[in-house]
Amino acid sequence: MLIRVTEPWQAQERDVTPETTYLNRRQFMAGTAAAGVVLAAGSQTARADILREKGGTPLDPIGESPLSTTGEKVNSFEDITTYNNFYEFGVGKDDPAQNSSSFKPLPWTIAIDGLVNKPMTLDVETLLHKMPLEQRVYRMRCVEAWSMVIPWVGIPLKTILDSVEPQGSAKYVRFETLYDPKRFVGQNRQVIHWPYVEGLRLDEANHPLAILAVGLYGRSLMPANGAPVRLVTPWKYGFKGIKSIVRISLVEKQPLNTWQETIADEYGFYANVNPTVDHPRWSQASERRIGEFSKRKTLMFNGYGDSVASLYSGMDLRANY
Ligand SMILES: Nc1nc2c(c(=O)[nH]1)N[C@H]1C(S)=C(S)[C@@H](COP(=O)(O)O)O[C@H]1N2
Ligand SMILES: [Mo]
């Protein structure tokens, strides 16, 4: 039975269909694999209902941005919110959805500081309810060679950066995820150095395609997708899209991002999607679109080259990894 709650983040497991019921049902189904097809379909729907019930407050009004990717099938709410990379909740693809049910993103503030004239503490409620939000449908290409199409809701990062007035010496933007092992169970293990850090060159951050996303499918973000605010840079590998941001700093030197720090010969700073530069352990020439069977060719800059290639003129794209 589903009980509506006004603030989804206040929902306890007992208020909605308990996750344990779903899990027990799934374990039961695993034992009856022969009947699995029909039962699985029912369970998928039930799960999507649960998630929708818990999945954020409606965001309004939302204009569709002309910068949206059109003509491609958008992934389902279920795909987008249950197949995730978010090591703060665990390293498995279904860990973020499973381990985030009690995570309450609000209240939340983001410190915006460093080489700026007007440092500020941004209350995320302001972002959610007082700023002009747009829907942006973007492809997302993970460095692990899978992809999705996601209808984000957010605002251009440039709008936020302009409001703090970056100084002339500011050349890069550094982003930091919340460090709180009590709320992020995955942070109790040192799989990577916490907090997760990412960075962009200031001109990349000011590019119109770069957004701070606060929602998807017209609702505020699920914790698994980086609630309440995460970065989205669709021409770069997914790991640049840092989640649950608490600090944005304008800095002079190129920040050391988490994946470069962790495995420098496999992951770099720019991380522009590039089908001609293979990962040391796999090809980047093609990708698996979640929900499809045959592989797709990966596109240079994930298909956004017309608008972003000029950011890198004169640079060796092979060194862009
Ligand atoms: N803080 C943080 N941000 C993160 C990650 C993470 O583990 N921690 N994973 C990244 C990776 S590898 C990808 S592909 C995207 C996945 O975003 P999604 O789960 O919303 O599809 O988030 C990125 N942002
Ligand atoms: Mo990724």
Kindly describe this structure.
- The protein has a single domain, classed as Sulfite Oxidase, Chain A, domain 2 (Alpha-Beta Complex).
- The protein is built from nine helices and 13 strands.
- The chain has helices at 19-30, 36-54, 77-82, 95-99, 124-130, 157-164, 202-205, 258-262, 305-308; strands spanning 63-64, 109-114, 120-123, 134-141, 146-156, 172-177, 197-201, 211-216, 219-220, 230-232, 245-251, 286-289, 296-297.
- Strands 1, 4, 5, 8, 9, 10, 12 and 13 form an eight-stranded mixed beta sheet that branches. Strands 3-2-11-6-7 form a five-stranded mixed beta sheet.
- Strand 12 and strand 13 form a beta hairpin.
- The model is unreliable at 1-42 (pLDDT under 50).
- Molybdenum atom is lined by residues 85, 142-144, 238-239.
Query: Beta-sheet strand percentage?
Result: 15-25%
Helix proportion of residues, in percent?
Answer: 10-25%
Which stretches are low in confidence, meaning pLDDT under 50 for 5 or more residues running?
1-42
The 3D shape can be described as globular
Write the layout of secondary structure elements.
Layout: H1 19-30, H2 36-54, E1 63-64, H3 77-82, H4 95-99, E2 109-114, E3 120-123, H5 124-130, E4 134-141, E5 146-156, H6 157-164, E6 172-177, E7 197-201, H7 202-205, E8 211-216, E9 219-220, E10 230-232, E11 245-251, H8 258-262, E12 286-289, E13 296-297, H9 305-308
Parallel strand pairs: 1-4, 2-11, 5-12
Antiparallel strand pairs: 2-3, 4-5, 5-8, 6-7, 6-11, 8-9, 8-10, 12-13
Bound molecules: the ligand Nc1nc2c(c(=O)[nH]1)N[C@H]1C(S)=C(S)[C@@H](COP(=O)(O)O)O[C@H]1N2 and molybdenum atom.
